[in-house]
Amino acid sequence: MPQVIRSPKLYDVCIVGSGAGGGMAAKVLTEGGLSVVLLEAGPPLNPQEDFKEHVWPYELSHRGAGVGGNALKPGNGMENEFLAPTGAWTIEGEPYTTAPGSKFRWFRSRIVGGRTNHWGRIALRFSPVDFRSKTRDGLGDDWPITYDDLSPYYDRVESYIGVFGTKENIPSAPDGIFQPPPKPRCSEVVLKRSCDKIGIPCIPARLAVLTRPLNGRPACHYCGQCGRGCRLGSNFSSSQVLIPPAQKTGRLTLITGAMAREILVGKDGKAEGVSYVDKATRSEKRVHARAVVVAASACESARLLLNSKSPHFPQGIANSSGAVGRNLMDSVGSEGTGYFPQMEKVPPHNHDGTGGMHVYVPWWKYDRQNDFPRGYHIEMGGGRDMPGIGMFHDLCDDVEGYGASLKQACRKSYGTGIGFAGRGEMIPNPDSYCEIDPDLVDQWGIPILRFHFKWSDYEIKMAKDMQETFRAIVEAAGGTYLTSTDSTGDNPYGIADGGVIIHEVGTARMGSNPTTSVLNGYCQAHDVKNLFVCDGAGLVTNPDKNPTLTILALSWRASDHLLDEAKKGNL
Amino acid sequence: MTEQTKKLDNLTTGISRRDILRTLTMGALGSSVLQIIPLQAAEHVHRMVTEEKTHAPGAKYKPKFFSAHQYQTLSVLCETIFPKDDHSGGAIEAGVPEFIDLLTSENRDYQVTIGGGLMWLDGQCADRYNQTFLSATPDQKSEIL
Q: How close B137 gets to chain A, by Cα (Å)?
């Protein structure tokens, strides 16, 4: 048995995870004067080598499918070889299980910057009512903080990372500090007209992509390939925007290939460091710190807390409430495609822009009674994107024959399909949670997670409403809605399996009651005052706004609080 | 700016890709792209395309999975399905046969469906016409497809 290697140094803070939450904490804490050791389970990111920005499909011999790949499903969409190598649906040697009857998929990014490297950059504020959910309709729980508590941090985050958008005064989608948005693309003008016709608001998107230079980062050059990674850092990622300033302070020690195994607890019941597996040497190592910030992604953080059992914390650290792993929520997702005949006649034109949409539909039915609680927004995209592998596959099924007529059909159809994706709020339920699988460990010897997941009628009714809205938008434009769904099957109305939208949150939620929640409003564990959880785990609800902007704001606020407490000697 | 984009941007005499694209975009706003693109810009586009093609898998591709005969059959099939026309090149120019061969060499499912499919095609042609697909007449090819 090799000896456990203890780092002799005592750091002020040990952070686990370098994504949105961990990266923000690293920046704020090091700039605040603290020494920080940051553990990242994956390798460092090297944009110059790892990003395949501006590479044409024919320049890669596999055209995106990857070695041994399938031409029609290049890497399940998220593992296409053009994309930055920043995450995967399956990681060899690091399995998870799902309980019988549950379907859940877990996307994990093991790399510096985590999922901020690939995310869609959709940066939406939660609205005031989102923090008062139980008061509003009796479901779920209220947050221990209000919109007014977080609003100054939204301001700071937007000003620092750069978000484009417009002031709209829509109650469900609060305005922020915005850079000017890019103009809508041709296909987006078509969508906007159609939405106008049926009284659905279609407004400029809000994405964390620069349209003006900011803090030495150049404005977007509109190559439309954010998902491949941006060598210039014009889009926001933790790896390019948060970690570098932390490193510049000289107070950050970044350890990559470090898989956190357990939070160490001192005799006084406080966290005193983290035990991790150094993947390169397969050895057990330890770092010690005065405070620990866990930001490994919601479920990975829950796993770490649950695996940190000690005489002080027999159910896992910070888990006297039993709420760790509970209240697991993803976004409600349902998608569809419309055929827009008017696009056939559009001459070749510049369809470039930021990666992702330039317009979207915020939740608009907040002023009426719906047959499901809460709401959703609609993301839309299509038109003349760069053709990729598998693009005309469906067409070959539909068009009879081959040769010149097939080629002409491809030309005619190119750019006529526009996709819709609804993203809505799930209500937490007792059947959706993660726990430690009692039987299995991963290749590092760390017990793995088992997922339980169930959609309720609320979410299924919402998915139905999404499908009806997509159809209405397409038909108002004179198009044909191509997706057909119904109430039957495993995925009624096209509702995605849990986890697929990659917005899983809630597994160490905050709250004012320590018997039903894990953290206080500063992301600080009720049970362990020098332990913070600064990722999506702390979210009490999962509104129809993608969680990253809120994770960044919560982490900044928590880090400010940690700095204050450190100054007062309270940790 | 990175090496990669520099290479794309400054292939020849200081006229950047962006300049050319801007010209092309302005041209596209008019009625006919071809009439409006200045000759100089068009030349640069051709040079860029040639340069980029040198990155692409070239004509010297050596099949990894299919025999020479099968690869030839595959190429003819690809071009038949997606031919060259007045507007643009066909499947062979796009590198489809080498792409299919590469994926098939690594993917067992494709080895069965595409590899087996090509064998089936020649088998059928032998039964019906006493020929391989390649040596069948145009009418026979059309009939079997």
A: 17
